[in-house]
Inverse folding.
């Protein structure tokens, strides 16, 4: 009934969806799986109208439709239950349920709250949630909020005559086991009225709930498996299924690390709500890669090493001395450099020029009694522009105007020139084109040769395998398995995925 | 840095892009205004008149420079009226008590006044940072406290400062401009030095341009903020001293009008309200625009109330021009 035919979507530098065919029948539950970056979320966005496809067509019951925005998709019965809770927490439950659709309760210019509460109660009954619709949303538990989200989408039932398609994006990520069961039985009941598209990192859940499963890789649908034929192993193979290009990841430049010295030691460290009981050692010259799905605790571990996150138990030692107080300044003083995920947000300061950005973390070294020695700053910037081949007209260029790859180089130059020897990289190649990625790989190898230790959260699994000496696989904040990644003896993608989901 | 180049002539920035336009627009506006008033009334261009504009503008320039630093950090300081009043009154009391002339120990009243300003700013920053109160609210409240203190100290009286040496700020002229204009100029250069040459100045831009990043680079952002407010307090006190020097009177009302004029000047000068962009030269241009309008309207004979209206419209125009609305989805 709902079909995508040969749908294409391109972003600058990325072919996000490649001729995707997708189909969902009345009352069907369809699962959607794939690695991070395989194109799942793009596909979802095309389906609920947040993105418009560049090519191909969308049909409902044979009629071609085109949505300019999610509201139009809703008018055709397509609703989205968001992964990150989209409820406005300072409004009441009923206000959230009917947000943007209050007009139906307006009498003489004022809202008839009784009528709205009654209608909201009706919606809440559908999801078997027995709460007062006038409750402020922030008072609800996460599980309750997830159900309210579902109830909100189910208002489509009354508004729309035709069939409904409801997208569930990672609905179980914040739920406990029994809450998941509850949600699943609810979804199964609701198939009498609606079809569901279910996206999850948890393979067992997808297998349990879905009638059919679409497997995506690199923006294309690589397989469609029926419920009865679905095997976790086979699906995982399909999700990855390719070899790592050794040349591309500079594997030939990978040197063994110095295992006598330890830069960072984690001893059963936990941060409540983020990860628990993580232990590892980082040595000079080592690339240690944290692998896991979104929310597996990778970022939190980086932030703990840097000092932005305070461990609730366990000890963190940096260069032999443990610390308990958490604060970024001390992290920098200990020689830790952090390259966060969003360069635009946390990597460079827009409006500040190249040398100003480079010395931001080490201004003390370029100032006497608070007065900057700008000449030295510029000399430093010139040296690193040359060394890393940063493409900028001069040191006065506003960093906001540089390309993503060059911004990344400025950020790395900032930490390396300041003498940081523990470098934390969070998705360092995200959004970069291939050439710029290779530059970053080269820089990672160089830093290792200089005796720096690197903790990496890679953008893709191939990157993780290609670059790292050691791989730690995490799942839901817990340690799963440690892999050794010496050249020639690297784990396969499948080995990792198997432990991730 | 966008600031040093404001002194160059226009024309180097062509062809005009949006950024170039935004950067040079304040100076352009100033020149157009001067040309307009000169056409309407040739006497506008006389040295006497310029001296008059600069005398009136000097105290506001000091206050506006102080608030510029705070706005570059992405915060705002609204305590200037109270701070100026309390600094002016504190100065006057100390000055008279210590001898009543600069030739005696009474000169100590000058640094004391600046310390008072610094203290007001420091408390401001402390309240803002440690109690996590939005800067506009913390500083507005501190301003009222300052006004109250000044009123309590004076009991509503005016205090006259008649020391000729101190009044020479106004009466002594070099090249037709009184000393206070040069004093203001020196403090402008000091502010420029702080802005471009010190870690503190750099930190203001870092905090305003990307606070998360400043934290992730190991800056002590709270310390920078407190220092920023303290520095602003010092410049408020310099403004207060020039204001007292100009009128020879210190009273609670000394601080009146500084808030609207200084914020207007900073915004009209092109310093962005969300921080990270702008500088003290922008503020100089902004202050001149504000006072040229005020003076010009008097010169061509328009009533004073038109002035306020025109300034208000100018502020809105300046913000419209300098805001890239595509990148901002919600404004609160």
């Amino acid at each position: 009934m709902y079909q995508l035919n040969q749908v294409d979507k391109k972003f600058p530098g990325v072919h996000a969806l490649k001729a995707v065919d997708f189909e969902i029948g009345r009352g069907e539950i369809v699962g959607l799986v794939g690695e991070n970056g395989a194109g799942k979320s793009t596909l979802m966005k095309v389906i609920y109208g947040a993105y418009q496809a560049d090519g191909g067509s969308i049909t409902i019951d044979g009629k071609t439709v085109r949505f300019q925005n999610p509201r139009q998709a809703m008018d055709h019965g397509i609703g989205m239950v968001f992964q990150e809770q989209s409820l406005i927490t300072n409004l009441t439950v009923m206000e959230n349920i009917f947000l943007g659709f209050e007009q139906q309760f307006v009498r003489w210019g004022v809202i008839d709250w009784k009528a709205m509460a009654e209608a909201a109660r009706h919606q809440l009954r559908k999801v078997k949630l027995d709460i007062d619709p006038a409750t402020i949303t922030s008072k609800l538990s996460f599980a309750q909020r997830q159900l309210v989200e579902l109830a909100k989408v189910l208002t489509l039932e009354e508004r729309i005559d035709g069939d409904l398609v409801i997208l569930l994006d990672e609905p179980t990520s914040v739920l406990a086991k029994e809450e998941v069961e509850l949600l699943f039985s609810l979804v199964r009941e609701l198939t009498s009225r609606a079809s569901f598209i279910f996206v999850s990192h948890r393979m067992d859940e997808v297998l349990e709930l879905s009638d059919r499963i679409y497997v995506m890789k690199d923006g294309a649908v690589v397989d469609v498996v029926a419920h009865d034929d679905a095997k976790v192993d086979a699906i995982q193979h399909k999700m990855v299924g390719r070899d790592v290009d050794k040349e591309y990841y500079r594997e030939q430049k990978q040197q063994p690390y110095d295992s006598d010295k330890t830069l960072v030691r984690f001893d059963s460290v936990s941060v409540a709500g983020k990860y628990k009981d993580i232990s590892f050692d980082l040595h000079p010259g080592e690339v240690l890669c944290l692998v896991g799905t979104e929310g597996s605790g990778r970022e939190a571990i980086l932030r703990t090493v840097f000092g932005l996150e305070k461990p609730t138990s366990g000890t963190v030692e940096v260069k032999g001395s443990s610390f308990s107080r958490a604060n970024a300044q001390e992290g920098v003083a200990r020689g830790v450099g952090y390259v966060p995920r969003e360069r635009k947000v946390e990597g460079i300061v827009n409006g500040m020029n190249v040398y100003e950005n480079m010395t931001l973390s080490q201004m003390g070294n370029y100032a006497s009694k608070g007065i900057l020695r700008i000449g030295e700053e510029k000399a430093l910037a010139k040296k690193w522009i040359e060394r890393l081949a940063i493409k900028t007209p001069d040191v006065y260029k506003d960093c906001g105007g540089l390309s993503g790859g060059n911004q990344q180089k400025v950020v790395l130059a900032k930490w390396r020139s300041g003498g940081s020897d523990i470098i934390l990289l969070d998705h360092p190649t995200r959004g970069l084109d291939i050439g710029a990625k290779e530059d970053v790989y080269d820089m990672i190898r160089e830093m290792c040769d200089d005796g720096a230790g690197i903790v990496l959260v890679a953008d893709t699994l191939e990157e993780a395998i290609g670059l790292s000496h050691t791989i730690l696989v995490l799942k839901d904040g817990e340690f799963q398995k440690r892999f050794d990644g010496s050249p020639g003896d690297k784990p396969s993608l499948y080995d990792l995925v198997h432990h991730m989901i | 840095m966008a600031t040093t180049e404001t002194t160059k002539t226009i024309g180097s920035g062509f062809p005009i892009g949006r950024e170039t336009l935004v950067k040079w627009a304040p100076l352009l506006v100033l020149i157009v205004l001067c040309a307009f008033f000169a056409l309407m009334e040739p006497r506008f261009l006389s040295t006497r008149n310029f001296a008059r504009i600069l005398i009136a503008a000097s105290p506001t320039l000091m206050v506006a420079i102080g608030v510029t630093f705070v706005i570059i950090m992405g915060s705002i300081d609204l305590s200037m009226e109270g701070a100026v009043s309390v600094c002016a009154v504190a100065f006057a009391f100390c000055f008279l008590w210590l001898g009543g002339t600069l030739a005696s120990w009474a000169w100590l009243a000058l640094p004391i006044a600046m310390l008072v300003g610094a203290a007001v700013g420091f408390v401001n920053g402390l309240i803002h940072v440690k109690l996590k109160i939005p800067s506009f609210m913390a500083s507005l409240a501190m301003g009222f406290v300052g006004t109250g203190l000044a009123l309590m100290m004076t009991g509503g009286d005016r205090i006259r400062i008649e020391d000729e040496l101190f009044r020479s700020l106004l009466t002594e002229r070099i090249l037709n401009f009184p000393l206070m204009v040069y004093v203001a100029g020196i403090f402008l250069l000091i502010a420029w030095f702080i802005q471009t040459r010190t870690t503190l100045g750099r930190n203001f831009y870092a905090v305003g341009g990307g606070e998360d990043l400043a934290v992730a680079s190991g800056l002590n952002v709270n310390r920078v903020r407190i220092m920023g407010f303290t520095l602003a307090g010092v410049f408020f006190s310099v403004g207060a001293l020039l204001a007292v020097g100009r009128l020879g009177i210190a009273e609670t009302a000394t601080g009146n009008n500084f808030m609207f004029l200084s914020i207007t000047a900073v915004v009209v000068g092109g310093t962005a309200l969300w921080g990270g962009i702008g500088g003290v030269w922008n503020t100089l241009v902004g202050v001149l625009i504000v006072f040229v309008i005020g003076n010009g309207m008097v010169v061509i004979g328009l009533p004073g109330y038109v002035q306020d209206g025109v300034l208000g419209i100018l502020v809105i125009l300046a913000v419209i021009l300098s805001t890239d609305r595509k990148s901002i989805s919600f404004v609160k």
About this structure: Residues 1-14 of chain B have pLDDT under 50 and may be disordered. Chain B touches chain A at residues 1, 197-200, 202-203, 205-206, 209-210, 212-220, 276-277 (CB under 8 Å). Chain B is about 70% helix and 0% strand.
